[in-house]
TrEMBL record:
GO MF assignments: DNA-binding transcription factor activity; sequence-specific DNA binding
Residue stretches making up the HTH araC/xylS-type domain: 161-258
Signal peptide bounds: none
Xref: PANTHER family: HTH-TYPE TRANSCRIPTIONAL ACTIVATOR RHAS-RELATED, TRANSCRIPTIONAL REGULATORY PROTEIN
Annotated protein name in UniProt: AraC family transcriptional regulator
Function of the protein: Regulatory protein of the TOL plasmid xyl operons. XylS activates the xylXYZLTEGFJQKIH operon required for the degradation of toluene, m-xylene and p-xylene.
Keyword Zinc-finger assigned: no
Species the sequence originates in: Pseudomonas alkylphenolica
Keywords: DNA-binding, Transcription, Transcription regulation
Gene3D superfamilies associated with the record: Homeodomain-like
Domain of life: Bacteria
Coiled coil: none
């Protein structure tokens, strides 16, 4: 296998791809974009800033715009996710959210980074199946990218409480990130950043957890799985079964049957 790149998601800010390579290389080159990579498996060797550096599985690579870099992939093979972030769109996001000056090329620590949270967020974005799920996943990537200091304990606690209150009062529908950020009275970027730090998961993931908690309560009360799915605003039975199974490991019907036996 030489080098294969399969496109994943593309929008005004980012283009992403899943790359598999074996006994191949990228000669020294550069990009206009900020480039992030998450090494899934294998070992890549990069040339950057006059050095050859090993990139193990689980590491992140970051190349600032116009950095000269090259890559070599050994015979054992490498798989990684690559994100190319458009600089103009990134600068606009910085201006909209008061992240530094918001003009000129943003620069970050580049090279091989051991940043588990950033690595995980890149994988979550790559795995997001729909545009609705891609936006908050991308905001979490940017949150981890811009994260320089820890959020103070309790920062934006009232804003988080307002968004959670909206979630609890709307278990019957799927809220959008815009609705939740508006309730928190924060920009979407700052809302996702603060919510993840305070709660530990993204806001849409948390809302889904609350809806599934209510689903389990209704199933234990004897309601039929079809009625539960409809009353809690799931698109259809398949959507409900998949969401429930990812968390509980069983179908709603199996959970309901087991609950009646107790």
């Amino acid at each position: 296998m030489p080098l294969i790149a399969e496109p994943l998601h593309a929008c005004g800010l980012v283009e992403s791809s899943w790359v598999r390579a074996c006994a191949a290389s990228f000669p020294r080159h550069t990009h206009d974009e900020l480039v992030l990579g998450a090494n899934l498996s294998g070992c890549e060797h990069i040339w950057l800033d006059g050095q050859t550096i090993e990139v193990p599985a689980g590491a992140v690579t970051l190349y600032n715009p116009l950095a000269i870099q090259g890559s070599t992939f050994g015979p054992g093979g490498v798989e990684y996710i690559s994100l190319h972030l458009d600089i103009d769109a990134l600068q606009q996001l910085m201006r909209d959210n008061n992240l530094g000056r918001g003009h000129g090329c943003p620069t970050f620590e580049q090279g091989v980074l051991q940043r588990p949270a950033l690595y995980r967020s890149i994988l979550d974005f790559a795995a997001a199946p729909t545009a609705v799920e891609q936006e908050p996943a991308l905001l979490l990537v940017l949150t981890e990218l811009f994260e320089q200091t820890q959020v103070r304990s309790g920062e934006q606690a009232p804003a988080i409480e307002r968004s959670v209150s909206l979630m609890r009062s709307h278990l019957h529908e799927r809220l959008t990130l815009d609705q939740l950020a508006q309730a928190a009275q924060l920009s979407k970027f700052h809302f996702v950043r603060c919510f993840k730090k305070a709660i530990g998961v993204g806001p849409l993931q948390y809302h889904m957890q609350l809806r599934l908690i209510e689903a389990r309560r209704r199933l234990r009360a004897g309601l039929h799985a079809n009625d539960v799915a409809l009353s809690l605003g799931f698109y259809d039975q398949s959507h409900f079964i998949n969401a429930f199974g990812r968390v509980m490991g069983v179908t709603p019907q199996a959970y309901s049957t087991a609950s009646r036996r107790r």
